[in-house]
Structure to design on (276 residues):
Protein backbone atom coordinates (compact mmCIF):
# COMPACT_ATOMS: atom_id res chain seq x y z
CA UNK A 1 0.00 0.00 0.00
CA UNK A 2 1.04 3.65 -0.36
CA UNK A 3 0.99 5.95 2.69
CA UNK A 4 0.13 9.62 2.67
CA UNK A 5 3.84 10.40 2.68
CA UNK A 6 4.23 8.36 -0.55
CA UNK A 7 6.19 5.53 1.04
CA UNK A 8 5.34 1.87 0.29
CA UNK A 9 4.53 -0.29 3.29
CA UNK A 10 5.28 -4.06 2.83
CA UNK A 11 4.49 -7.13 4.89
CA UNK A 12 6.48 -7.66 8.03
CA UNK A 13 8.47 -10.85 8.54
CA UNK A 14 5.97 -12.01 11.14
CA UNK A 15 3.06 -11.50 8.74
CA UNK A 16 4.85 -13.48 6.02
CA UNK A 17 5.58 -16.32 8.43
CA UNK A 18 1.93 -16.41 9.50
CA UNK A 19 0.75 -16.61 5.88
CA UNK A 20 3.29 -19.35 5.07
CA UNK A 21 2.24 -21.23 8.18
CA UNK A 22 -1.43 -21.06 7.18
CA UNK A 23 -0.62 -22.30 3.67
CA UNK A 24 1.46 -25.16 5.07
CA UNK A 25 -1.37 -26.10 7.44
CA UNK A 26 -3.90 -26.15 4.60
CA UNK A 27 -1.58 -28.30 2.49
CA UNK A 28 -1.13 -30.67 5.43
CA UNK A 29 -4.91 -30.97 5.78
CA UNK A 30 -5.65 -31.36 2.08
CA UNK A 31 -2.84 -33.67 0.97
CA UNK A 32 -4.05 -36.80 2.79
CA UNK A 33 -7.53 -36.25 1.37
CA UNK A 34 -6.11 -35.80 -2.14
CA UNK A 35 -3.97 -38.90 -1.71
CA UNK A 36 -6.98 -40.94 -0.60
CA UNK A 37 -9.03 -39.62 -3.51
CA UNK A 38 -6.27 -40.51 -5.99
CA UNK A 39 -5.91 -44.00 -4.52
CA UNK A 40 -9.67 -44.52 -4.63
CA UNK A 41 -9.67 -43.46 -8.28
CA UNK A 42 -6.82 -45.88 -9.00
CA UNK A 43 -8.65 -48.70 -7.23
CA UNK A 44 -11.76 -48.01 -9.30
CA UNK A 45 -9.75 -47.92 -12.53
CA UNK A 46 -8.00 -51.16 -11.57
CA UNK A 47 -11.36 -52.80 -10.94
CA UNK A 48 -12.56 -51.61 -14.35
CA UNK A 49 -9.43 -53.12 -15.93
CA UNK A 50 -10.14 -56.48 -14.34
CA UNK A 51 -13.78 -56.31 -15.38
CA UNK A 52 -12.68 -55.79 -18.99
CA UNK A 53 -10.27 -58.71 -18.70
CA UNK A 54 -13.15 -60.72 -17.23
CA UNK A 55 -15.29 -60.08 -20.31
CA UNK A 56 -12.42 -61.32 -22.49
CA UNK A 57 -12.02 -64.38 -20.28
CA UNK A 58 -15.73 -65.17 -20.59
CA UNK A 59 -15.52 -64.87 -24.37
CA UNK A 60 -12.44 -67.11 -24.49
CA UNK A 61 -14.05 -69.79 -22.34
CA UNK A 62 -17.24 -69.59 -24.38
CA UNK A 63 -15.29 -70.20 -27.59
CA UNK A 64 -12.89 -72.91 -26.41
CA UNK A 65 -14.83 -74.42 -23.49
CA UNK A 66 -11.58 -74.20 -21.51
CA UNK A 67 -9.47 -71.69 -19.62
CA UNK A 68 -6.33 -70.29 -21.28
CA UNK A 69 -3.76 -71.70 -18.85
CA UNK A 70 -0.94 -69.79 -17.21
CA UNK A 71 2.28 -70.54 -19.08
CA UNK A 72 3.93 -72.51 -21.84
CA UNK A 73 7.16 -72.65 -23.82
CA UNK A 74 7.36 -69.61 -26.09
CA UNK A 75 10.51 -69.17 -28.18
CA UNK A 76 12.29 -71.51 -25.79
CA UNK A 77 11.23 -69.47 -22.75
CA UNK A 78 8.75 -70.22 -19.95
CA UNK A 79 6.28 -67.44 -20.67
CA UNK A 80 2.81 -66.28 -19.69
CA UNK A 81 0.15 -67.06 -22.30
CA UNK A 82 -3.11 -66.07 -20.63
CA UNK A 83 -2.63 -62.31 -21.36
CA UNK A 84 -1.81 -62.83 -25.03
CA UNK A 85 -4.69 -65.26 -25.49
CA UNK A 86 -7.17 -62.84 -23.90
CA UNK A 87 -5.76 -59.76 -25.65
CA UNK A 88 -7.32 -60.77 -28.96
CA UNK A 89 -10.78 -60.36 -27.40
CA UNK A 90 -9.98 -56.73 -26.49
CA UNK A 91 -8.91 -55.48 -29.92
CA UNK A 92 -5.30 -55.81 -28.88
CA UNK A 93 -5.64 -53.40 -25.94
CA UNK A 94 -2.73 -53.95 -23.54
CA UNK A 95 -3.39 -50.92 -21.33
CA UNK A 96 -5.98 -52.79 -19.26
CA UNK A 97 -3.25 -55.15 -18.04
CA UNK A 98 -1.63 -52.34 -16.02
CA UNK A 99 -2.93 -51.26 -12.62
CA UNK A 100 -2.58 -47.45 -12.25
CA UNK A 101 -1.27 -47.91 -8.69
CA UNK A 102 1.69 -49.89 -10.01
CA UNK A 103 5.03 -48.59 -11.29
CA UNK A 104 4.55 -47.14 -14.81
CA UNK A 105 7.64 -49.08 -15.88
CA UNK A 106 5.70 -52.29 -15.24
CA UNK A 107 3.21 -51.56 -18.00
CA UNK A 108 2.98 -54.13 -20.79
CA UNK A 109 4.39 -51.93 -23.51
CA UNK A 110 3.97 -52.33 -27.26
CA UNK A 111 7.49 -50.97 -27.68
CA UNK A 112 9.81 -53.93 -28.21
CA UNK A 113 12.94 -53.62 -26.04
CA UNK A 114 16.38 -54.49 -27.34
CA UNK A 115 16.77 -57.25 -24.76
CA UNK A 116 14.60 -60.28 -24.06
CA UNK A 117 13.19 -63.07 -26.18
CA UNK A 118 11.09 -62.18 -29.23
CA UNK A 119 8.07 -64.16 -30.38
CA UNK A 120 8.03 -65.97 -33.70
CA UNK A 121 5.23 -66.86 -36.10
CA UNK A 122 4.95 -70.27 -34.43
CA UNK A 123 4.00 -68.56 -31.16
CA UNK A 124 0.79 -67.16 -32.67
CA UNK A 125 -1.01 -70.24 -31.28
CA UNK A 126 -0.62 -68.57 -27.90
CA UNK A 127 -1.76 -65.19 -29.18
CA UNK A 128 1.73 -63.73 -29.60
CA UNK A 129 2.56 -61.42 -32.49
CA UNK A 130 5.85 -62.13 -34.33
CA UNK A 131 8.65 -59.94 -33.03
CA UNK A 132 7.00 -58.82 -29.80
CA UNK A 133 8.51 -59.36 -26.36
CA UNK A 134 7.91 -62.79 -24.84
CA UNK A 135 6.41 -62.48 -21.34
CA UNK A 136 9.16 -64.37 -19.55
CA UNK A 137 7.74 -65.34 -16.15
CA UNK A 138 11.16 -64.90 -14.51
CA UNK A 139 11.95 -61.37 -15.71
CA UNK A 140 8.95 -59.53 -17.20
CA UNK A 141 6.74 -57.74 -14.64
CA UNK A 142 2.95 -57.76 -14.54
CA UNK A 143 0.27 -55.95 -12.54
CA UNK A 144 -2.06 -58.94 -12.57
CA UNK A 145 -1.65 -62.64 -11.83
CA UNK A 146 -3.61 -65.73 -12.87
CA UNK A 147 -4.86 -68.38 -10.44
CA UNK A 148 -2.97 -71.27 -11.98
CA UNK A 149 -2.73 -74.05 -9.35
CA UNK A 150 -5.44 -73.08 -6.89
CA UNK A 151 -5.13 -73.15 -3.10
CA UNK A 152 -4.02 -76.73 -2.47
CA UNK A 153 -0.37 -76.56 -3.45
CA UNK A 154 -0.93 -79.48 -5.83
CA UNK A 155 1.15 -79.08 -8.99
CA UNK A 156 0.14 -81.81 -11.41
CA UNK A 157 0.13 -82.47 -15.13
CA UNK A 158 -3.31 -84.07 -14.86
CA UNK A 159 -5.87 -81.30 -15.50
CA UNK A 160 -8.54 -83.39 -13.79
CA UNK A 161 -6.63 -83.03 -10.53
CA UNK A 162 -5.77 -79.37 -10.90
CA UNK A 163 -7.62 -77.04 -8.54
CA UNK A 164 -6.85 -73.72 -10.23
CA UNK A 165 -7.54 -72.55 -13.78
CA UNK A 166 -4.54 -74.28 -15.31
CA UNK A 167 -0.80 -74.00 -14.91
CA UNK A 168 1.73 -75.16 -17.49
CA UNK A 169 0.48 -76.50 -20.80
CA UNK A 170 2.23 -78.11 -23.80
CA UNK A 171 4.92 -77.94 -24.92
CA UNK A 172 6.13 -76.76 -21.49
CA UNK A 173 4.20 -79.59 -19.81
CA UNK A 174 3.83 -82.37 -22.35
CA UNK A 175 0.72 -84.10 -20.98
CA UNK A 176 -1.08 -81.21 -19.34
CA UNK A 177 -4.16 -79.91 -21.16
CA UNK A 178 -6.16 -76.81 -20.38
CA UNK A 179 -8.68 -76.91 -17.54
CA UNK A 180 -12.16 -77.40 -18.97
CA UNK A 181 -14.94 -74.94 -18.28
CA UNK A 182 -17.05 -77.62 -16.59
CA UNK A 183 -14.41 -78.14 -13.90
CA UNK A 184 -15.29 -74.76 -12.38
CA UNK A 185 -18.29 -75.66 -10.26
CA UNK A 186 -19.22 -72.17 -9.01
CA UNK A 187 -17.95 -69.43 -11.34
CA UNK A 188 -19.08 -66.63 -9.00
CA UNK A 189 -16.93 -68.14 -6.23
CA UNK A 190 -13.79 -68.99 -8.24
CA UNK A 191 -10.80 -66.63 -8.17
CA UNK A 192 -9.48 -66.03 -11.68
CA UNK A 193 -7.11 -63.03 -11.76
CA UNK A 194 -5.98 -60.48 -9.17
CA UNK A 195 -3.48 -57.75 -8.40
CA UNK A 196 -0.10 -59.46 -8.15
CA UNK A 197 2.96 -59.12 -5.95
CA UNK A 198 5.13 -57.46 -8.57
CA UNK A 199 8.84 -58.21 -8.29
CA UNK A 200 9.65 -59.41 -11.85
CA UNK A 201 9.49 -63.07 -10.81
CA UNK A 202 6.30 -65.10 -11.40
CA UNK A 203 4.29 -61.88 -11.56
CA UNK A 204 1.86 -63.39 -14.06
CA UNK A 205 0.35 -65.82 -11.53
CA UNK A 206 -1.00 -65.72 -7.98
CA UNK A 207 -0.62 -68.37 -5.28
CA UNK A 208 -1.87 -68.17 -1.65
CA UNK A 209 0.86 -70.54 -0.43
CA UNK A 210 3.99 -68.72 -1.65
CA UNK A 211 4.62 -65.23 -0.29
CA UNK A 212 6.39 -63.99 -3.42
CA UNK A 213 3.31 -64.98 -5.43
CA UNK A 214 0.60 -63.79 -3.05
CA UNK A 215 -2.09 -61.45 -4.36
CA UNK A 216 -0.65 -57.96 -3.94
CA UNK A 217 -0.97 -55.36 -1.22
CA UNK A 218 -1.79 -52.68 -3.77
CA UNK A 219 -4.98 -50.97 -2.65
CA UNK A 220 -6.38 -49.94 0.72
CA UNK A 221 -5.48 -47.78 3.70
CA UNK A 222 -1.88 -46.82 4.29
CA UNK A 223 -0.27 -48.37 7.32
CA UNK A 224 3.04 -49.42 8.75
CA UNK A 225 5.06 -51.20 6.05
CA UNK A 226 5.26 -54.93 6.69
CA UNK A 227 7.89 -57.47 5.61
CA UNK A 228 7.04 -59.33 2.42
CA UNK A 229 6.53 -62.55 4.38
CA UNK A 230 3.82 -61.08 6.65
CA UNK A 231 0.34 -60.78 5.07
CA UNK A 232 -1.03 -57.24 5.13
CA UNK A 233 -4.31 -56.87 7.07
CA UNK A 234 -5.05 -53.38 5.71
CA UNK A 235 -3.96 -53.31 2.09
CA UNK A 236 -4.91 -55.83 -0.55
CA UNK A 237 -5.97 -56.61 -4.08
CA UNK A 238 -8.82 -56.34 -6.53
CA UNK A 239 -9.92 -59.84 -7.49
CA UNK A 240 -11.67 -60.95 -10.67
CA UNK A 241 -13.90 -64.02 -10.36
CA UNK A 242 -14.77 -66.40 -13.17
CA UNK A 243 -18.27 -64.97 -13.61
CA UNK A 244 -16.76 -61.54 -14.35
CA UNK A 245 -17.44 -59.67 -11.10
CA UNK A 246 -14.66 -57.96 -9.11
CA UNK A 247 -14.16 -57.78 -5.33
CA UNK A 248 -11.55 -56.14 -3.11
CA UNK A 249 -9.98 -58.14 -0.27
CA UNK A 250 -7.04 -57.59 2.05
CA UNK A 251 -3.95 -59.63 1.36
CA UNK A 252 -4.28 -61.37 4.72
CA UNK A 253 -7.86 -62.37 3.99
CA UNK A 254 -6.94 -63.74 0.57
CA UNK A 255 -4.08 -65.97 1.71
CA UNK A 256 -5.54 -67.15 5.04
CA UNK A 257 -6.88 -70.59 4.18
CA UNK A 258 -7.46 -71.83 7.74
CA UNK A 259 -8.78 -70.12 10.88
CA UNK A 260 -8.61 -71.94 14.22
CA UNK A 261 -7.97 -75.18 12.39
CA UNK A 262 -10.97 -74.81 10.09
CA UNK A 263 -11.07 -73.78 6.41
CA UNK A 264 -11.61 -70.06 5.96
CA UNK A 265 -14.40 -68.60 3.82
CA UNK A 266 -11.77 -67.74 1.21
CA UNK A 267 -10.24 -71.22 0.96
CA UNK A 268 -12.78 -72.82 -1.43
CA UNK A 269 -12.73 -69.75 -3.65
CA UNK A 270 -9.23 -70.68 -4.81
CA UNK A 271 -10.32 -74.10 -6.06
CA UNK A 272 -12.34 -74.99 -9.12
CA UNK A 273 -14.31 -77.65 -7.22
CA UNK A 274 -15.27 -74.97 -4.64
CA UNK A 275 -13.95 -77.16 -1.82
CA UNK A 276 -11.23 -76.22 0.66
Amino acid sequence: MVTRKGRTKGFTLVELLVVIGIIALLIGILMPALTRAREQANTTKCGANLHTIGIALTMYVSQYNAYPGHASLVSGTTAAIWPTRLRSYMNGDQGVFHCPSQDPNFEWSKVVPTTGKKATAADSRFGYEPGELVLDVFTVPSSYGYNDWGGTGLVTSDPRLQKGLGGDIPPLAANCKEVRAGQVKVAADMIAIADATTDRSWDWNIDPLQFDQWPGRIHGSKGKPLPATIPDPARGANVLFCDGHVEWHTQKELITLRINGQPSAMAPRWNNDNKP
Notes: DSSP finds three helices and ten strands in the chain. The beta strands are 71-74, 77-80, 144-147, 191-195, 205-206, 219-220, 235-241, 246-250, 258-259, 262-263. Residues 13-270 form one domain. The first helix runs from residue 13 to 64.
